[in-house]
Amino acid sequence: MSEQKKPIRVMLADDHPIVMTGFAMSLEAAGMQVVGQAKTPSEAVTLYAAQQPDVVILDMRFGTELTGLDAAQSILKDDPRAKIIFLSQFDQDSLIKETYRLGAHAFVTKDCDPSDLVTAVRHAHDGKLYFLPQIASRLASMAVRGDVTPQSQLDERGLEIFKLMAEGLTNAEIAERLDLSTKTISNISQSIKEKLGVHRQANITLLAVKHGLIEP
C-alpha cells in the first residue's frame, strides 16, 4: 500500500485579510494546507523561517515601506530553494519582469480564477514556472522589444538615486540623504539622465511611475 501523498504546505502574505481568507479557502478546498498568514513583509520573513512552507504566496504591495520583493529577497537569501509566487493587483511590465528575474515561480493577479492560483502552487511545488496567458504574452512582448527599464540600465546605487530624483529631490538633498558630495550626485544624476534618455523632471517622474519604482 503506497504512502498517502502529503498535502502541499502553503504560506500566504497579504495585508488584506479578506483576500487572504478567500485564497486560503480555495487552496484548502483543493487539498492544500495553509500553514500561516502574514500581514507584513517582515512578518512574512519570520513566519517563513518558522514554518518552512513548500510554497509562499507574497503580495507585491503592502502598506509599509517594505514590499513583497523585499520579503522575497530576504527569504531567498536564507533559503535559495524557496518557491515563491507573487500576487498583485498591479501588473506593470517592470514588476512582472522583476519577479521572474528574482526567481519567482509565478506571478498571478488578485482577480485571477482560484483554479489558476491552485495550478500555480502545484507548478511551483514541482519546481516549474507557471504563466497566466496574459502574463506570458506580456513577457514575450518585453523580450521582443528588449528590456529598457531603469532596473536593467542602472546599478543598485544608480537606481536608488533615480528614485529620489523622481520624487523631486534636488542634487543637494539627495547628497545629504545618501551622505555623498553634491558633485558626486550631480555627476551620477547626469549619467542617469543620459542612460535613460530623460532630462525633464516630469519625464523622470513619469518613467519611475511607469516602471513601478514610485507610487503615482
Automatic annotation (TrEMBL):
<dbReference type="Pfam" id="PF00072">
    <property type="entry name" value="Response_reg"/>
</dbReference>
<dbReference type="InterPro" id="IPR039420">
    <property type="entry name" value="WalR-like"/>
</dbReference>
<dbReference type="InterPro" id="IPR058245">
    <property type="entry name" value="NreC/VraR/RcsB-like_REC"/>
</dbReference>
<keyword id="KW-0597">Phosphoprotein</keyword>
<dbReference type="InterPro" id="IPR011006">
    <property type="entry name" value="CheY-like_superfamily"/>
</dbReference>
<protein>
    <submittedName>
        <fullName>Response regulator</fullName>
    </submittedName>
</protein>
<feature type="domain" description="Response regulatory">
    <location>
        <begin position="9"/>
        <end position="125"/>
    </location>
</feature>
<feature type="modified residue" description="4-aspartylphosphate">
    <location>
        <position position="59"/>
    </location>
</feature>
<dbReference type="InterPro" id="IPR001789">
    <property type="entry name" value="Sig_transdc_resp-reg_receiver"/>
</dbReference>
<dbReference type="InterPro" id="IPR000792">
    <property type="entry name" value="Tscrpt_reg_LuxR_C"/>
</dbReference>
<dbReference type="Pfam" id="PF00196">
    <property type="entry name" value="GerE"/>
</dbReference>
<dbReference type="InterPro" id="IPR016032">
    <property type="entry name" value="Sig_transdc_resp-reg_C-effctor"/>
</dbReference>
<feature type="domain" description="HTH luxR-type">
    <location>
        <begin position="147"/>
        <end position="212"/>
    </location>
</feature>
<keyword id="KW-0238">DNA-binding</keyword>
